[in-house]
Amino acid sequence: MTVQPPDQAAYGELAVRVQAAGLARMTARAWSAGLWPVTRCSVTVQDGKLTQLHTGRSRLLCPQQRPVSPIWQEAADRGLVALALVGPGTWPAATLEGEKSSHEQRRLMDAASAGGILLGGLAHLRRDPEPYGHRW
Predict the structure, then answer these.
(1) pLDDT score for 99
(2) Domain residue ranges of the chain, discontinuous segments joined by +
(3) C-alpha–C-alpha distance, residues 76 and 43, integer Å
(4) CB atoms near residue 8 (< 10 Å)
(5) Per-residue DSSP letters for 72-99?
(6) 115 secondary structure, DSSP code
(7) Which distant-in-sequence residues (6+ apart) come within 8 Å of 107 by Cβ?
(8) What per-residue confidence (pLDDT) applies to 12?
(9) Residue pLDDT, tens place only, 3-51
(10) Torsions phi, psi for 32 (to 5 deg)
(11) Strands 38-46 and 49-54
């Protein structure tokens, strides 16, 4: 799951929250090798759509409840999903989660990591929303 805030102020605010939950700055090498830390974050997918991200202290609702691709859902059925926070303008806005080609994805993530704006980790997948206020 890739989270891309609309502006730098929102990116900075969200970066503080997700880093407190365990996401780390990722180098291109660490991202490509799958060296993602397990975090306290959870991602909720209901009816094939992303509905929320929970950081352990904050719940972020997906305003547009973006659909996930069948490939993404198949990978997520293992219980953990890669979660990335990138800066504004990194991804094309209309792209479905999991529908980026591997070459395009690598190029965009390499650019984000080179710019120091890629935070990543593994989040737990939930089928039901995380209870509001749940803390680890």
Answers:
(1) 52
(2) 2-100
(3) 10
(4) 12
(5) HHHHHTTSEEEEEE--TTSS-TTPPBT-
(6) T
(7) none
(8) 92
(9) 888 899 998 999 999 999 999 998 888 888 888 899 999 988 888 888 8
(10) -65, -35
(11) antiparallel
DSSP E strands, 4-109: 24-25, 38-46, 49-54, 59-61, 80-85
Q: Which amino acid, residue 129?
A: P
Average pLDDT over residues 54-59: 84
Helix (H) or strand (E) holding 18, with range, is helix 8-20
- Contact of 81 with 73, CB cutoff 8 Å: no
Rounded to whole angstroms, how far apart are CA atoms 89 and 5?
9
| Side-chain-side CA neighbours of residue 129 (13 Å) | 11
- CA 130 – CA 39 distance, rounded (Å): 15
CB atoms within 10 A of CB 12: 11
Q: How many residues belong to the chain?
A: 136
Dihedral sign for Cα atoms in the order 88, 75, 23, 115? negative
Q: Give the chain's largest Cα–Cα span.
A: 39
Q: What is the pLDDT of residues 25-37, one digit of tens each?
A: 988 888 888 888 9
